[in-house]
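Before a colleague's protein record goes any further, I have to sign it off. I want your independent view on whether this chain really folds as the tokens say. The record follows directly below this note.
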Amino acid sequence: MAAEQEKKPEVLSGTAETSAADFVPDAGGPIVSRAKRLLIAGTGSGVGKTTVTIGVMAALKARGLSVQGFKCGPDYIDPTYHTAVTGRLSRNLDSWMLPADTVREIYCRASRDADIAVIEGVMGFYDGKNPKTNEGSSAEISLLLDCPVILVVNCKSMARSAAAIVKGFQLLDPRVRIAGVFANLVGSEGHYRIVRDAIEQECGVPVIGYMLRDEKLAMPERHLGLVPSIGRGELSPFFSQLAERISAHTDLERLLQAADTEPLEASARIFRPQEADRGGTASEAPRSLPTGAHADAAASADAVRPPEPRVRIAVAKDAAFHFYYPENLELLQAYGAELVYFSPLAGEKLPAGVDGLYLGGGFPEEFAERLAELREMKQSIAEGIGSGLPTLAECGGYMFLTDAIVDTSGRQYPMLGLVPGKVTMQNKLAALGYREATGTEGNFLLGPGDTARGHEFHYSVFEPAASATLPPAYKTKGMRGSKDEGALSGSLVSGYTHLHFASNPDMPRRWIEKCLLFRKMRDGLV
């Protein structure tokens, strides 16, 4: 698929894909990861942990090691960096969205054939859902995985005080294992030695490396256009520079020693295999989760065959639509879906004969003018959804369904026109945070008594049309209370919220059942 995508303008390339061919289900035994593991955390946001993480990943890969990346929390963009650097599909580990057993299972499945797992933290090490506990924090992930931590400290304008910061992180929760410190943004090698000596004396942990202040190595803008630039390989020189800098100023042998941990074991629970369905309901389908695009098929001696595809679901995948949790796609495959990727941005019409449609998040606003011009593509998708095609649209996909996208200059670009109203871009975040979603009446993914967890992150505001409105798809609860969210119309479920299917695995099962019913109705069998 990557080779085909390179021939098309603005289509994401260079990212790991999953397909039915990658499916390597387990036979239900424990999943064991013997990879070394390390969590790179920061004292707060903006201290440079993403830069350090990517540099460490690139330096270790340059040594010939197989590096599996992970990101704490719900963010999509940092895993895209990881995937580009390591060549392996990076995954999110989120202890608020997902149960602890599921976090361990995702970790073990993805890392069991790697040499080392490098996990990037989120915000500050102890920052999460609850200011009074470790819930949803990098600290909680480190405890769930019994994972050593390298703490990144911004050492600009300080010396011995850096030791006080590290000491505080050690003492707040003595259960965490801070195995080393990375001194970031030091002014000189001499400054580094002062900070190192203070920390090692007072805190009893090694300072394994440092990075000088250098504007040339600043991370690029994380929002507009970033992911397409990664896909086109434009950041490869930047990644190479980071690898060289980390290798020159970091004791990688000491880092590998810190990451030398006991094997971690997880049970196949949510994704446990079952007897393959041969014509019954989707609830009887296998629940095995594939291990990803680079998994070793021989990793389990008890490996079983993946389920035969029972339905075909089209998935929009290009520079405008590309935010999908890998587990969402893999759970659909596990229940028997063949995923058919296509690029709306390249003018590709809805693939013929599909039984469902997934429009993920991304940056449609960046390509609004072009999307507006692709009338045949838009018509094919609108007609498919209008025919009753079971469809889930999240964030950018939801924006694409509206009457129009309005940019920050007031220019308006017509979209699909299936959700009455328009979305208007802002220069600041409009919504950010975790969401617990409850379905509404008629929602085929989540009913009124069903809940799932996810997050919102967007710069636009939806303005419903005064003349016609659709019922909400969800009732979501966040830090600031509850609200109606999204739009529901027949077999279309849409909204800003990105849901993680592993928070409620009944969602992919219901989607497959809805797709089966749609296909029977289309074929005149019911």
Remarks:
- The CA atoms of residues 58 and 213 lie 19 Å apart.
